[in-house]
Amino acid sequence: MNPSEPTPLTARQGGPILGRVRVPGDKSISHRALILGALTVGETTITGLLEGEDVLRTADVMRALGARVERTGDQIWRVHGVGIGGFAQPANALDFGNSGTGVRLAIGAVAGAAVTATFDGDESLRGRPMQRVLDPLQKMGARVVHVADGGRLPLTLKGATHPIPIVYESPVASAQLKSAVLLAGLAAPGETTVIEAEATRDHTERLLKHFGAKVTSKAHGDHGRRIVLQGQPELEPAAVMVPADPSSAAFPLVAALIVPNSELVLDAVMTNPLRTGLLATLREMGANIEDLEKRDGGEEIADLCVRTSALKGVDVPSERAPSMIDEYPILAVAASFAEGVTRMRGLKELRVKESDRLVATADMLRVNGVTVEIEGDDLIIQGKGRPAGGGEVKTHTDHRIAMAALMMGLGTENPVRIDDSAFIATSFPGFVDLMRSIGSDLA
Ligand code: S3P
């Protein structure tokens, strides 16, 4: 991706959204499958891997750390891992591009290996906080050789020769932070414990169990979890099937809700309860979303049928945020097509995503004629039924702002243009073709 050559794109009203599609594999599980495969001796096969830029960076980094990572077919990958603590000293800085998940998880994995590595990323990633992962990892014995001002990238970390298991009470609701500690804890003797006040996505825990580690997870307080990992397990290679990413499915799903006369089936969407905050919220707003067929293969999965719906504004509680943290930009689009006020509470973490997503989301709506306010960490949207549109949205190299804005333009009176569509490929390769195949006008 060359940031000096932006590729603008415009979405406008066309026919209904109709058809049946499967969006690409889940980003969170794809990163984790590659990293756990690299930490396992033997061959791990991954099917349905998300072949987006973010995940491809993680694949490259696992290679740089000594694992053999091969693409053997369409979304089929094979990883020959080096084992826990077995990473090789990388020759160059590890470049994670735009990917916060990739870099934070890899920092955790490297913290438990006797190597020194430099982590870096693009301008957006260099602006995001890394100190939150360094704090617990230093307690586990990793040493920060260098870190840019404010706890940012680039940073150089010397992994612990003898990692120390810790009990860590996480100060932020972050699955990336939890996962970094658990991945480092794999190399530590004894129990590593993470306590979270708000439960976050549990794909790391599920996959660790799938690879044979002992992990327990118990309720903690009203909304939290206490996760205990038994260190130094014998990980066994295991086949991983990656379900469709609910955070990607969210875009065509909301398009089908707001574009008149639409009916869309989204196949095999992961419905892990720690990822379904958007579905719960949209259903409260009156969305017609039917689970056609539910199944379970390590993660809950359902085919979802979505039909155009009259939506009403709702109050979204802050404790729901971890289960829909990436979905606020597209929920904001749905809310601007609803009747009445939607208040989304407790969105502090949105400020440190690929962009300041709280501000970027508000700006996206405002330039398209929607009345919107930020009050503290809350976003308040005055639903209008059908906004005017006609604005040009600044995406700030944020893939989710880009996709949300385009979905908005499929329903607004006037077209919506985005300044750059290139970063969509970080999480949703083939997005434009998929959307066109179900009837949307993107040009
Ligand atoms: C992710 C966790 C979330 C989310 C990100 C993916 C993960 O970030 O925003 O897209 O795979 O663990 P935080 O852990 O920083 O909330």
Describe this structure as you would to a colleague:
- By secondary structure, the protein is an alpha/beta fold.
- It folds into two domains: 217 residues, UDP-n-acetylglucosamine1-carboxyvinyl-transferase, Chain (Alpha-beta prism); 203 residues, UDP-n-acetylglucosamine1-carboxyvinyl-transferase, Chain (Alpha-beta prism).
- 28% of the residues lie in helices and 28% in strands.
- The chain contains 13 helices and 24 strands.
- The strands form six sheets. It has a four-stranded mixed beta sheet with strand order 22-23-1-24. Strands 2-15-17-16 form a four-stranded mixed beta sheet. A four-stranded mixed beta sheet has the order 4-5-3-14, with helices on one face.
- Helix 2 runs parallel beside helix 3 and helix 10 packs parallel to helix 11.
- It binds shikimate-3-phosphate (S3P).
- The site of shikimate-3-phosphate (S3P) has 10 residues, from helix 6.
Number of strands: 24
For the record, the count of structural domains works out to 2
CATH class group of the largest domain: Alpha Beta
- Helix content bin: 25-40%
Q: How are the SSEs placed, and which strands pair?
A:
Layout: E1 9-12, E2 18-21, H1 27-38, E3 42-47, H2 53-64, E4 68-73, E5 76-81, E6 94-95, H3 100-111, E7 116-120, H4 123-126, H5 131-139, E8 143-148, E9 152-158, E10 167-169, H6 175-185, E11 191-196, H7 203-210, E12 215-220, E13 224-230, E14 240-241, H8 246-258, E15 263-270, H9 277-284, E16 288-296, E17 300-307, E18 315-316, H10 328-336, E19 339-344, H11 357-366, E20 371-375, E21 378-384, E22 392-393, H12 399-409, E23 416-418, H13 431-437, E24 441-442
Helix pairs in contact: 1-2, 1-3, 1-7, 2-3, 3-5, 3-6, 5-6, 8-10, 8-12, 10-11, 10-12
Shikimate-3-phosphate is lined by residues 28, 101, 174-176, 179, 201, 325-326, 349.
